[in-house]
Amino acid sequence: MFERYQGGEQALLVHVDFRDETAREDLRELEMLATSAGATILGTVTTRRDSPQAKFFIGTGKADEIAQEVRRLDADLVIFNHALTPAQERNLERIFECRVLDRTTLILDIFAQRARTHEGKLQVELAQLRHISSRLVRGWTHLERQKGGIGLRGPGETQLETDRRLIREKIANILLRLEKVEKQREQGRRARVRNAIPVVSLVGYTNAGKSTLFNRMTQSKVYAADQLFATLDPTLRRIELAKLGPVVLADTVGFIRHLPHDLVAAFKATLQETREADLQLHVIDCSDERVKDNMAQVNEVLHEIDADEVPQLLVYNKVDRLPEGMPRIERDDTGKPVAVWLSALTGEGTDLLLTVLDELLSVQVVEHQLKLPASAARLRSRLYELKSIQRESYAEDGDCIVQIRLSEVEWLRLVKQEGPHILNFIVKQ
Q1: Where do the Hflx-type G domain residues begin and end (predicted)?
Q2: What are the helix (H) ranges across 254-306?
Q3: CATH of domain 10-101
Q4: Which CATH class is domain 190-363?
Q5: Residues annotated in a binding site for GTP
Q6: How far apart, in whole angstroms, are the C-alpha atoms of residue 199 and residue 251?
């Protein structure tokens, strides 16, 4: 489909330092991404600009300089630490005479390598197709005309239009298949709600140590490595807490700054575990100098997928890398735990985390008695969907009295969806 320069994985990195902090990327992160993708880094070219240039993203002089560096190093690939437009990629490839990748395509490539489950592969393919659809013009500039001649007269489509139609059809097909997977996940979630099993989801910046912590807590052997996006497919395991009993722990994909929107959209089903969790463990690499920025990026993605209202416990990982790092529990003024410091690698502090989970999840169950008039039939139906009704009876005036029990997260979500008037139905004890 694409007439692009072929080659290996010998890469030259390009990083532009913009004045606008929101447009800045991290050079060290680009190096880690390139290494995670399997590229051999030959060198790095950095430059400063106020804003991207329309034609080449970088200046014409810098583009010529990079072209000379590509020939000198015999590079197969030039990777930009930024998002490029299709036209910019095409223009740069003509000058460099090799493949050009932007940050988004690089992340998509890593995801494609890491996907193991059927669902993960479908989600990556969906993200790639959405990304490719905007770049189709590069492969068919010589065929942007209608077919003609004996044996070639077709439906009046250009080759470009045909490809776009085929991609649209394939995207629709993948969305249908993902919908089936999502329904299967929903059935599993309903079973957990019915059995009143709390779900704890691990979230955090990529390479923060989520999978290592997951393995430590569940005695599992989920793939964990010191590289970006080592985990892609979600994994669920059951653990036993001393007081509360069974809890489901979910390991999810790590986040990264400027995570491609195509990926966020494609992984909605996977990230559902994060959205529907009773508690999020926000795993943070406390040895990273960009710790505050990384936390902000994670919270930004959580907001984007509507998962920012789930209660969150901060888990500062890798205390073994700090000079005076000690496992401990941080509490607020009311005595409620807000953070746990530990090392998933050595196991120090994981017992403190289990104690805090027992403490937090034990108090996160809401019980109410509601008096529902006939006009609240939709709310009653919703409560049955959540499997939260324990007992039901009728008052003399015909109103329905229900005793409900559900997690605090579900209750707050219900109040938000149905409106604050639901509080008027609570029977004062």
Answers
A1: 198-365
A2: 261-266, 268-275, 291-304
A3: 3.40.50.11060
A4: alpha beta
A5: 204-211, 229-233, 251-254, 317-320, 343-345
A6: 11
Q: Encode pLDDT of 236-249 as tens digits.
A: 788 888 877 788 88
Instruction: Tell me the pLDDT tens digit for each residue of 155-199.
Output: 545 666 777 778 888 888 888 887 777 777 666 656 555 556 788
What residue numbers does the annotated binding site cover?
Answer: 204-211, 229-233, 251-254, 317-320, 343-345
Binding-site residues for Mg(2+) sit at 211, 231
Spell out the residues 6+ positions from residue 281 whose beta carbon is closer than 8 angstroms to its own: 200, 201, 202, 203, 204, 213, 312, 313, 315, 353
- Estimate the crossing angle of helix 60-73 against helix 86-96, to 10 degrees: 50
Tell me how far apart the alpha carbons of residues 29 and 207 are, in angstroms, rounded to a whole number: 11
Decide if 10-101 and 190-363 have a common fold. yes
Structure tokens at 364: 């996160």
Residue 426: which of 386, 376, 362 has the closest Cα?
376
Write the pLDDT tens digit of every residue in 368-422: 889 988 888 888 888 888 778 888 988 888 889 998 887 776 777 788 888 888 8
Which stretch of 46-50, 58-62, 220-224 has the lowest confidence by average pLDDT? 220-224
Q: Give the list of residues 6+ apart from residue 406 with CB closer than 8 angstroms, or none.
A: 193, 365, 366, 386, 388, 414
CA pair distance 372, 354, nearest whole angstrom = 39
pTM equals 0.68
* Identity of the amino acid at 305: I
- Is pLDDT of 99 > 70? yes
* Domain ranges (residues) in the chain: 10-101, 190-363, 373-425
